[in-house]
TrEMBL record:
GO terms for molecular function: histidine phosphotransfer kinase activity; phosphorelay sensor kinase activity. Residues 352-576 form the Histidine kinase domain. GO terms for cellular component: plasma membrane. Keywords: Kinase, Phosphoprotein, TPR repeat, Transferase, Two-component regulatory system. Its EC number is 2.7.13.3. It is an enzyme of class 2 (transferase). May play the central regulatory role in sporulation. It may be an element of the effector pathway responsible for the activation of sporulation genes in response to nutritional stress. Spo0A may act in concert with spo0H (a sigma factor) to control the expression of some genes that are critical to the sporulation process. This is Stage 0 sporulation protein A homolog. Residues 597-717 form the Response regulatory domain. Gene3D superfamilies: 1.10.287.130, 3.40.50.2300, Histidine kinase-like ATPase, C-terminal domain, Tetratricopeptide repeat domain.
């Protein structure tokens, strides 16, 4: 996914590139950027703008319409107003004036909703132009005055456009003094540089209406000189003023010159039907004024030909529009169906989760009741405590799955490339799952012979999560007395990268091919409710695996036979670490904290009690602080006597990150070296990184496990 900064930089680089290269870039962005981001929105706008500037107005409209229909799904940016305006201007150029006003007014409404006052003048000006084209001069004047009223907060370039249009409107209303004043202001705002042809047109009309013969002839000569270089719209506007003035003055020579100019244009571009239609309309009007019946009939015949061509093109455009609207409608329908399906799945998931979460909670509360009634029966109490431990860990597993899925769906997972040793990582995974397998009465076979000094760069954390989820699946759905076989194979290796395939095969219940193809990697999915009831779980594990594999640029394949078992193969690429950290001798972690003084910072009293008990049972002296600010003061009171700090993160007054930074910057003795260990429920890689960046040494995830906490502390004290 491209960031907006990357997109903007690339646009700047392509500013002077060939048109086709720029078109290809924006088309590729729209094809690849499927999320409704600022990048996708700006790609729509800039892509359409390329076609608009090239005079291909219909293509510009076709590009922008899907965005216009769905614009509320995007985060607001001022360019949304520009998108509506651009579609409105396109409609104006194809003479769909009512439609043009609709789009422009929608843009104005959005501008008002977001107080984009600098856009008001722009929108009112464009509205006025549509009325001007329809010769509704009174309405055009009313609207252009609104544009003039909002000029002080608009871009100064806009002033030239507004005064130019005001000048033309006043000319048509014979308010010539106002027209002269408006044109002078237009020129003062660099109108001759910004819109030279538009200024020449209104100047021609004004000098004619004012009776300035010399000025009028000069203006006509300027228009004639520039006529061959103009686009169709500017060409027609210039021809119109020359023709209208010539007809009004009875200047047949000028009228015939204009008709010849339009004929010449059509010889160069015979497909420009609008020019042909205007030429024959003018020819008919001229012939009628001169009583030339033969010329009138010839003009009418040609006019009908061009009119039929225009209608055919309009019908072709209409057919394309209908087809496009049907496709857009189908996409919207599919999106709604997908959303409805997702909602049904999530509703089913919530119902299942309600049951699955209540089950371990019921076990915990039930066993506590048994303990209260049987305190003197030590064996019974020990049995209950073991069952509470199992239920609590099961509950934690359910919550972790939901949090992982939420993190993935919000696209906030960060895959860091950090040094790790593959053999050690696999050994850690083996330690975790071997106990689970043995408790379930399963045999575990491993073959990792393909690992040779595999010092890599990647996310060991997410690799573990992938493998543990696959193992958990293999354990959960296996048969009594079954087995799990794992195999690691080095698929390929270059000087800088290595690709590994991790295969986990079980002897479980297996899956149908239909479930594998259509549902296995869906969130909240299990093959049937009976399996869910029998085997438990959220149905999130495989979706988490699939999305993590994708984020790590890997692949996952599945083979399964119902009643015989399943085999999952995950293939992942890693960069080779050519400068791995030296492996020092393993220090035996002592859990004896006698003589150690620890500052515990925790705002929750129950969590404080738990941490205090664990630490004191290991012999430590505990100093307590209930927010970050109190922790900073407690450390400052006796910095030399503090062997380590255990820091909660989310606290009132001052959070743990700020407290860690404040301690490091305090200038107190040992402020830079005292170990600060985070202990928080925020347990993702980016959370750990944030802790380290704020000056902490390590991170312990809640809920706290005594052995993990003591081993972590022992690394630093």
């Amino acid at each position: 996914m491209m960031t907006y900064e990357e997109f903007d930089k690339r646009c700047d680089e392509l500013e002077n590139a060939p048109l086709q290269e720029r078109k290809t870039f924006f088309a590729d962005v729209l094809a690849g950027e499927t999320e409704k981001t600022d990048v996708r929105m700006m790609a729509f706008f800039r892509y359409a703008l390329l076609f608009y500037r090239a005079g291909n107005f219909l293509a510009a409209r076709e590009i922008l319409e899907p965005f216009i229909i769905d614009y509320k799904s995007y985060r607001y940016r001022p360019e949304i107003i520009a998108c509506f305006n651009l579609v409105g201007v396109v409609a104006y150029y194809v003479q769909e004036y009512a439609l043009s006003r609709f789009y422009i007014r929608e843009g104005l409404k959005i501008a008002r909703e977001h107080s984009e006052v600098s856009r008001y003048a722009y929108e009112y000006n464009n509205l006025a132009v549509t009325y001007l084209a329809q010769q509704d001069y009174e309405k055009a004047l009313e609207v252009i005055r609104e544009a003039e009223k909002n000029m002080p907060v608009s871009d100064e370039v806009m002033h030239a456009y507004i005064y130019r249009n005001l000048a033309e409107i006043c000319c048509h209303l014979d308010r010539l003094d106002e027209a002269k004043d408006a044109l002078a202001k237009c020129v003062a705002y660099r109108g001759r540089e910004i819109l030279p042809e538009e200024v020449r047109i209104v100047n021609t009309l004004l000098t004619y209406k004012s009776g300035d013969t010399a000025g009028y002839k000069r203006c006509c000569a300027e228009l004639r000189e520039h006529l061959p270089q103009l686009h169709a719209e500017e060409f027609l506007a210039s021809c119109k003023v020359l023709f209208d003035c010539g007809m009004d003055a009875g200047d047949n020579a000028q009228v015939e010159w204009v008709l010849d100019a339009m004929d010449a244009y059509l010889r160069r571009d015979p497909k420009e039907a609008q020019v042909g239609l205007r030429a024959e309309t003018c020819r008919y009007e001229y012939a009628k004024a001169n009583g030339n019946t033969a010329l009138m009939l010839a003009a009418l015949e040609k006019k009908e030909t061009y009119y039929a061509l225009v209608l055919a093109r309009k019908e072709e455009v209409h057919v394309r529009d209908v087809g496009r609207y049907l496709r857009i409608g189908q996409r919207l329908h599919n999106a709604l169906e997908s959303e409805a399906g997702a909602n049904r799945t999530k509703t089913r998931f919530l119902a299942n989760m309600s049951h699955d979460i209540r089950t371990p909670i019921n076990g915990i509360l039930g066993m506590l009741e048994v303990i209260r009634d049987c305190r003197s029966d030590e064996a019974r109490v020990d049995d209950c405590l073991g069952k509470i431990d199992i239920s609590a860990k099961h509950l934690l597993s359910l919550v972790n799955d939901v949090l992982d899925m939420s993190k993935i769906e919000s696209n906030s997972f960060v895959v860091d490339a950090k040094p790790f040793n593959l053999a050690r990582t696999l050994a850690e995974v083996d330690d975790i799952v071997r106990i689970q397998a043995e408790q379930s009465g399963l045999r575990l076979y491993t073959d990792h012979d393909d690992v040779h000094d595999a010092d890599l760069l990647g996310s060991a954390l997410y690799l573990k999560k992938i493998l543990v989820n696959l193992y958990s699946n293999a354990i959960k759905y296996n048969k009594p007395g079954g087995s799990i076989t794992t195999r690691l194979c080095e698929v390929s290796r270059t000087a800088d990268t290595a690709v590994y395939a991790f295969t986990i095969r079980d002897t479980g219940i297996g899956m149908t091919q239909d479930f594998i193809d259509n549902h296995l990697f869906e969130a909240f999915s299990q093959e049937d409710n009976a399996a869910r009831s029998q085997y438990g779980g959220t149905g999130l594990g495989m979706s988490i695996v699939s999305q993590l594999v994708q984020k790590m640029n890997g692949t996952i394949t599945v083979e399964s036979t119902v009643g015989e078992g399943s085999s999952f193969t995950v293939t992942l690429p890693f960069a080779i670490d050519h400068d791995p950290p030296a492996a020092g001798p393993e220090k035996e972690a002592s859990t004896d904290l006698h003589g150690k003084r620890l500052l515990v910072v925790e705002d929750n009293e129950l969590n404080m009690e738990i941490a205090e008990f664990m630490l004191k049972s290991a012999g430590a002296e505990v100093v307590k602080a209930f927010d970050g600010e109190s922790a900073v003061r407690a450390f400052a009171a006796d910095p030399a006597g503090c062997d380590a700090i255990l820091m909660d993160l989310m606290m009132p007054v001052m959070d743990g990150y700020a407290a860690a930074r404040a301690i490091r910057a305090s200038g107190q003795p040992r402020a830079g070296t005292v170990p600060i260990i985070a202990m928080s429920a925020n347990a993702y890689a980016e959370d750990v990184k944030k802790c380290l960046d704020s000056g902490m040494n390590a991170h312990i995830s809640k809920p706290l496990f005594k052995d993990v906490m003591l081993r972590t502390i022992a690394r630093f004290v």
